[in-house]
Amino acid sequence: MTDEPLFRELRTLLGEDRVQTDPSVLSLYAQDETPRHCRPDAVLFPASHDQVAGIVRLARQAQRPLIPRGAGSGNVGGAMPAPGSWVVSFECMNHILEFRPEDRYMVVEPGVVTDDIDKLARSAGLMYAPDPGSGAYCRIGGNLAMNAAGPRCVKYGATRDHVLGLRAVLGDGREIRTGSRTSKYATGYDLTRLLVGSEGTLAMITEATLRLVPAPEQVASIRVCYDSNSAACQAVQRVMAQPILPYALEFMDRRSIDALRDFGAAEGLPARTAAVLMVEADGSRDEVVQRMLALERALSGHGMLEIQSGFSKAEMAHLWVARKSLSHAVKAIAPRKINEDVVVPVSCLDALVQSIDELGHRYRLPIVSFGHAGNGNLHVNLMVHPDDPAEMERAADCRRALVEKVLALGGSLSGEHGIGSEKRQYLPLEFDRPSLEFMAQIKSLFDPMGIMNPGKKLPD
Amino acid sequence: MTDEPLFRELRTLLGEDRVQTDPSVLSLYAQDETPRHCRPDAVLFPASHDQVAGIVRLARQAQRPLIPRGAGSGNVGGAMPAPGSWVVSFECMNHILEFRPEDRYMVVEPGVVTDDIDKLARSAGLMYAPDPGSGAYCRIGGNLAMNAAGPRCVKYGATRDHVLGLRAVLGDGREIRTGSRTSKYATGYDLTRLLVGSEGTLAMITEATLRLVPAPEQVASIRVCYDSNSAACQAVQRVMAQPILPYALEFMDRRSIDALRDFGAAEGLPARTAAVLMVEADGSRDEVVQRMLALERALSGHGMLEIQSGFSKAEMAHLWVARKSLSHAVKAIAPRKINEDVVVPVSCLDALVQSIDELGHRYRLPIVSFGHAGNGNLHVNLMVHPDDPAEMERAADCRRALVEKVLALGGSLSGEHGIGSEKRQYLPLEFDRPSLEFMAQIKSLFDPMGIMNPGKKLPD
User: Is A62 exposed, middle or buried (0-12, 13-18, 19+ CB in 10 A)?
Assistant: First the structure.
């Protein structure tokens, strides 16, 4: 009850309904997609930049951690509350503030659902290129925090590549604007891209100016089945060595195909299929035809069992059925997945997939790998039973061995999910001590009291 | 002579010939393309990352400013020595350390000439997209420092968009690596893009991992003549509102055409020509034909006098003759140009060009404007006689009025040249005090002693 005066101040600032301390509400905001939880002391729903600035001011006075939150759809604990924290949910800051198709940008609040940005852009022949799998419900603020990406990013780049400028409240209470509304900029220090991907540990973003690109007139799909992981990985490398960039280049490994079979969702695939690539081309109608031919040429080779193309919506949907079933099929293997999101140079993909197979054998774990192969970015899912401590211990050892392998291949811990609370213990494997210390100093400069999303991104 | 012990230490570190204190050498490094000069105390030619780290160590001990320098081709005083400073010339760090076409990246030292990067990339069907006008002699370190760009950037983005990772020595002597060699990355704070465009005020970059893109199979050119600046600007806006991104979209204003006429280099242009656009399309052979048609459609409209296309090298060269003569033609107007490099949202280009005309009349100055119109980025050249103090005063007032207009249109001080020593007095017009103070704190974090390129980028 000692917090009541604080909550009164917050209610004065935000309005009665925008400060929630009811246990049932707190429980709803106690976790993201990570299987851990911690109840915050309050959930706040600011409606404006000024209200966010007010929240930071009060949190600094009261020394309370602030946990910014979009849809809570992240899977690395980026929105996991800390003890005694206030969750700042951006659900009510969901307005598109400005749309200038002639200048190819849109200014949005952090609570706007990602797909809504793309939809509005398409009404003017443009698109917002980054396409996380959660696009239908995730919010752009979370995408900005984690530098989210998706299949299209193999051609168009990730969230960071599509932000022109930001408005933000730093952890020290300062309010800044970064970047510009122009498509070129060589004036100030680039704080825009520093804040993107900083996982709410430096500042709360209250507005973002997003860069839009021309929407393709048409997209077409290819599904290719191979008799081994290696044959599929080599095809990925061939595609990325020729000039036509695919609109998507997605991989499912042997274990994924096994899971689909067990789930009854592999009907259309040739019997000997051990790996599948889903590939897309985009462009004008004429361009798409030419590009499909070029991609099909690159995809064809040793170990290919079947290649099918789809140009109509119905054909494309048919080809994607297996891939769309994968998430459910994987869930049937074991009750929990530990989802790594590693990335390697694309020429090392084959070696990575082979290593993952070996790790699965060594640690006696089913490991299902799929993802954005054109970027060398795999989602490596260790399937576990959380109530089996021996298995959980093997999984922990396996994760570390995986990370070590990825780094030995010249890769990085995360391609698109970020670090959050779940991977920060591995950062010292990727960065030397001076670099980590320097990152901690950057954090201290933005957030001297350490109230911004503590326990995320950086190791202790 | 009191510096002799220091120079001995530097010679031990770098080698006898790599520490130059001869007045004739010092004079060579006393200026960049800005018409001011200041002789440094020494010019150093490090050959490795470790030697750069050693230089920073000694400079910290001796409290000497360090002025990093590529080719000295910048025009905002970015490489201008400070009194008592040591110029660090990267001419000898000119090695390409790694080229992995299969992973579409190249690791280079900062002294590599920009065009050499592109040439090597093209040997494998790739290109390094940023194409500053000085590409034949400028060095990539300078491009990284200033976030350089060029005509292709309207489609492909500027230097910052093509850097995956860096190795650098900070002003506090720390040595860090940033980013990764992968095409996606969501692990550490993005220090890569913070260092790009920081103009040597935070760190010295010793290695850069550059992203490469597929080289287009073909490029073709269009030259379009209009009867007014406004007609040309409206055509630019039409091009940027349709889906085909040009490979280049360059503008020459009425004053540019006048200068070409006076110089005898406007022969091929229709008599009533008052503005010209140079436009390019790239892609496969089939794509280029389609794209040229789409661009020609968008370029056609009110006030167009003539449109000519060229597909062969000879035809393209012919179309570009006038544009390539412009630099010489402009020099004939007055002995000095004050080159602003402003950028506005492309929908404001027409308004900007009109304002520039008004400013020319109000301040009685010839102002020649041309540049990367697809990005809303104009090089605005105030032509002056430096020995006419009244004219120079009018020019100073005119510059300020120009900057104010650009900012009122939602633009920014610099699109690609950077701030250097020459524009920093205008930063308080673009940024509020908290933002400027915060940038100064960023600078202090990287460079607590203030030895890294002092007097650049930030106001005093």
Answer: middle
Taking only residues 27 to 66 of chain B, the set having a beta carbon closer than 8 angstroms to any beta carbon of chain A reads none
CB count in 10 Å sphere of residue B300? 12
Q: Which domain holds residue B174?
A: 96-214
A153 and A202 fall within a common domain: yes
Is the pLDDT confidence value at B43 over 70? yes
- CATH number of the domain within which B131 lies: 3.30.465.10
Q: Look at residues B408, B407, B405, B161 and name the one whose alpha carbon lies nearest to residue A187.
A: B407
Interchain contact, B186 vs A147, CB within 8 Å? yes
- Centre a 10 Å sphere on the Cβ of residue B137 and count the other Cβ atoms it contains: 12
Q: Tell me: the pLDDT tens digits for A61-72?
A: 999 999 999 999
Share of chain A above pLDDT 70, in %: 100
B75 lies within 8 A of chain A by CB: no
Location of structure tokens 């995730």: A138
CA nearest neighbour of A457 among A406, A414, A408: A414
Mean pLDDT of B128-142: 97
Contacts of B154 in chain A (CB under 8 A): 183
What CATH number is given to the structural domain containing A323?
A: 3.30.70.2190
Contact B346 A183 (CB under 8 A): yes
Q: CA of A288: which chain B residue's CA is closest?
A: B287
**Has residue B332 been placed in a domain?**
no
Looking at the structure, tell me whether residues B291 and B202 fall in a common domain: no
Same domain, A204 and A251: no
pTM, two decimal places: 0.97
- For A91-98, the CB contacts below 8 A with 24+ separation are A91/A45, A91/A139, A92/A18, A92/A45, A92/A46, A92/A47, A93/A46, A93/A47, A93/A48, A93/A52, A93/A141, A93/A206, A94/A139, A96/A120, A97/A207
A186:B416 CB<8 A: yes
Model pLDDT, residue B286: 87
Distance set, CA A318 to CA A270, B112, B200 (Å) = 15, 50, 54
**B44 within some domain:** yes
Q: Is the pLDDT of residue A2 over 80?
A: no
In a domain, A76, yes or no: yes
Identity at A50, one-letter amino acid code: D
Q: Looking at the structure, tell me whether residues B124 and B24 fall in a common domain.
A: no
Residue where one domain finishes, among candidates A44, A70, A89? A89
Q: Classify residue A429: in a domain, yes or no.
A: no
Distance CA A427, CA A450 (A): 19
Please state, rounded to an integer, the average pLDDT across all residues of chain A: 96
CATH at residue A9: 3.30.43.10
pLDDT in tens, B243-279: 999 999 999 999 999 999 999 999 899 999 999 999 9
Does A1 have pLDDT greater than 70?
no
Q: Mark whether B169 and B245 lie in a shared domain.
A: no
Alpha carbon B173 to its chain's center = 28
Q: Alpha-carbon Rg of chain B, whole angstroms?
A: 23
Do A188 and B435 count as a contact with CB atoms less than 8 A apart? yes
| Cβ–Cβ below 8 Å for A189 and B439 | yes
Q: How many CA atoms lie within 13 A of B389 on its CB side?
A: 0
B205 and B227 share one domain = no
Question: Total domain count for chain A?
Answer: 3
In the listed set B43, B65, B89, which residue is the last one of a domain according to the structure?
A: B89
Sorting pLDDT into bands at 50, 70 and 90, what band is B3?
Answer: confident
Residues of A numbered 320-349 whose beta carbons fall under 8 angstroms of chain B's beta carbons: which are they?
341, 343-347
DSSP E strands: which ranges in B180-311?
Answer: 203-211, 213-214, 218-226, 248-252, 275-283, 304-310
Give yes or no: residues A160 and A203 share one domain: yes
Q: Are residues A84 and A115 both part of a single domain? A: no
- If you count residue pairs, one on A and one on B, with CB atoms under 8 Å apart, how many are there? 248
pLDDT at A135: 97
The predicted-structure confidence for B430-439, as pLDDT tens digits, reads as follows 999 999 999 9
Residue A451: the pLDDT is 98
